[in-house]
Protein: Leucyl/cystinyl aminopeptidase
Amino acid sequence: MWSRQRDCVDPRCHIRNTVLSTQGAKYFTSDISGLNMIENSMFEEEPDVVDLTFPALDPDEVTYEPRSSRLLVRGLGENDMDDDEEDCESSARLLGMSFMNRSSAHRSNSSPYTRQAPPRSCSRPSSRTIVVCVLFLVIVASMTMVLYFLPACTFTKAGCPKPNKTNPIEPVYPISTNGELFPWAQLRLPQSIKPLSYDLTLNPDLDKMTFTGRTVINMSILHSTNRIVFHGANLSITKATFMASDVTVLEYKPRQQLAVNFSEELKAGQYCVLTMEYSANFSNTYDGFYNSSYIDKDGNKRVLAATQFEPLSARKAFPCFDEPAFKATFLIKISRKKTYMTLSNMPKAKSTNLSNGLVQDEFEKTSVNMSTYLVAFIVANFTSITKNVSGTQVSVYSVPEKIGHTEYALTITSKLLEFYNNFFDINYPLKKLDLVAIPDFLAGAMENWGLITFRETTLLVGNESSLLEKQVVASVIAHELAHQWFGNLVTMRWWNDLWLNEGFATYMEYMSLQEGNLFLSVRFRALDKDALSSSHAVSTDVNTTEQVEEMFDSVSYEKGASILLMLNASFPGDQQFRKGIIEYLKQFSGLNTDTDDLWNSLTQTDKPTHHMNVSQMMTSWTSQKGFPLVTVNLMGNQVTLTQEHFLLTSDNTTHTSSLWNIPVTYVNDSFLSVFMCLFVFSDTFKLSKNVTWLKLNYKSTGFYIVDYGKDGWSALTEALSKNVSVLTHEDRASLIHNIFALSRLGRVTFRQVLNLQKYFSLETETSPVMEALLQLNNIYRQLEKRQESNLASRMKVLNSHPRNSIFTNQTWDKEENVSKQELRSALLEMACSLNDENCTHQATSLFKKYKDSNGTIRIPGDLQQTVFTVAGQSDETWDTLFNMYVHATYDSEKRKMLKGLASTQNPQRLVQILSSGLRGSLIQTQELPLIISTMCQSFAGCLFAWDFIQENWDRLIEKFPIGSFAIQTIIKSVTSQSSTQAQLNKVQAFFSGLKERGSQMRSVQEALETIKLNRDWMDRNLPTLRRWL
Structure:
């Protein structure tokens, strides 16, 4: 470790620190083995080398190329070995003794080893000596043969020998379904084959819920091989031919892989064609080619079929090379009844009447190479509205009854498409762009190239919808449109770099719409998750299908977006970052990339300014989990900054010495302009004059937490108490978040948290109030679930008392400002949840007017959740609300009604909605995560939800894949507010018993860690809470 001090006459200087040698090293995955050395640094000549390499393997066998398979041995002296090395001494001498001495003549005179000059004449060896030498040579030869024929080994300091994992002699192949050996033993496909194009013909039968298909794959042989390995799941292959000859397709179901073996080797450079015919059932979950349904305005059930392929489900619709790096073109044909219509990624080329009375729609061949997860097709009876935007035909589709709710989506899509075309300096490459609202769709939306699919609630809004509801739709559309460049045009090479897709799309979502408050909140939540030991690096190893699913989390999305915001804020001027990402998109257009490619592009763009090495700075943020805690020590005009890993769970197993290149911004009471410094471990600089307080991380653009020390926190609290506007609302919100996080860490007392709260009565802005409400409500929920009823009831008073003026100033009329809508919604929802008499009376009155008017009197959109929740908590109005839910067609309103229904404390009704959601009858199964999350806001509801999950776990993972975001949400909902040892024991016992059915999920480890942290915080702070409350 080291520290460096530098005085800054101009506080705006960029402090460039020498990077520690450990940070200069390139980061490799665990699958790549480096050189293993036994070395003594006293020798500086080139090392002698013993070559232990073995004959080259088939290229298919090598997923990661080893850096080296040679053993380097440097000058072994008799005093140079540790105890741990002694076991290797004889082997090392056998391997190295002769050649170690070979270069002695070339050593410098400064060598600490001295050797006596050989005598000028040699005496004749005795026969005994000759016998000993011959025996020695025989032993050496024998040992050499043993070493040659045994599996390769790696000699290390930790022990000798260790198996060499980089060069297995022969892989162990699994058994395919027909009993033959399956010719591949890894999750990722071999790199010998490159698919060039797919010709897909699909024949869905929406009456029988089945489909047949024919897939023709044109491919190129990159490396000579005698097998083709690809993906397929739940497909019954009825016929397969390779270059017009029949072949047998092998299947290994655990990895969803198919293979064809060949007696003669396929030669590199050869082009070939594999054709397969197959049949399958529609998926009964929400991935692959699945069936969906809805009830039309006449009460009739309508059936449709749609796709959701990301991340690993294209293989459920057609045989394919289902990895992001295997890009190809697609020609798609789909047959249908005349009463249906079809959609796919490209415009329809022609329709042909078939002899069986069906119509076959053929779509244009894709004009771009696409990853399989971006392919999409729909068979339905939808209607649309259309607009031409800069040469692109933009359409929004919905079921006929809801076409009136598509206008806003078309308007905002048209504006965003023009914005992105200009911002990225690359026009959207396809002829058309369809946005489709699917009645039964698990994800919020999916960025299929040219055919983006949505939940109805994230695409459809009426003219009377609130600004908050329209903001949700605009955000989702902005996210998915950004993917047409980040993800579709340039795609991550493998799922370990999912953040290149999702982090960028999330960043562009907030940047394009200037949604500052919302982005600030999600950054705080990303910090909360990343503070756990169970978190992961932004770019991390992904070796199982469950790990692929688990990458779709707040680290890939919100942390990815947050570090891009931080990087953008670190560049001089407004356009430098934009220039870098334009260069990145143009350089890798149509290709696959990894994280280093992005940083290298941005580094090249920044070279003329010599501002900073982007790759060097940002690698520390993507290659290791977590984020830094920056501690500030202010003495007059001298500022000392130090950093350490902010890790809530710290023990010997999680100890790290992580360091980050941190771009630090700050303001103070003398200079209200923004200054920046970049530091690695610690830094000291001087301001031009003494200051009273210093606030780091201006507007919270940096992904780190700051501790100001006792005096620093007191100074900031006093400054805010005198003038709340001395800091921006983002800075005030970040102070609230940071001090609660530090209390959780144990770095500040809860009394210090309460001291900061003294200024809250002056607060009027949305983001600080929302953050304070969230943090205090979390404590209240934990007290409630610990059955600390006395403390919980007193906590209700605390949650409203400091902000009485804010509560009483809220109206129940229509509000036009979106920020005020957001604040009002949160405050009134909190007040009614605390049984505030005025709040519940107003909500009940509004619900009665709404009911009596048969829905003609509208409840303002931002007040609907509060009103429906109050109605759902009353036994008198629950049935009325349920009947409204069943017959409601307006999707956003319908979902709020469902949350209200799930807020009931009535056990029979809780069971009713859970059972209905699981069956998918009156309540769609896609809504189960929402139901469980809402129920867990109360103690009784959470108990029922926990019992339900334990009883129905197997059915849940049939509906939602293990590791999926839906499963993550369910687990977090039922565990995040638990804080007792008994609750921890129950959760641990249940999940440990699941074994391969979910016990190893990262979300389970996160849940257990969170309960322990809650328990420890409560144990530390309950006495303080009791005294204070």
Q: What stands out?
A: Confidence is low (pLDDT under 50) at residues 1-57, 62-124, 146-166. The CA atoms of residues 624 and 775 lie 27 Å apart. The radius of gyration is 32 Å. The first helix runs from residue 21 to 24.
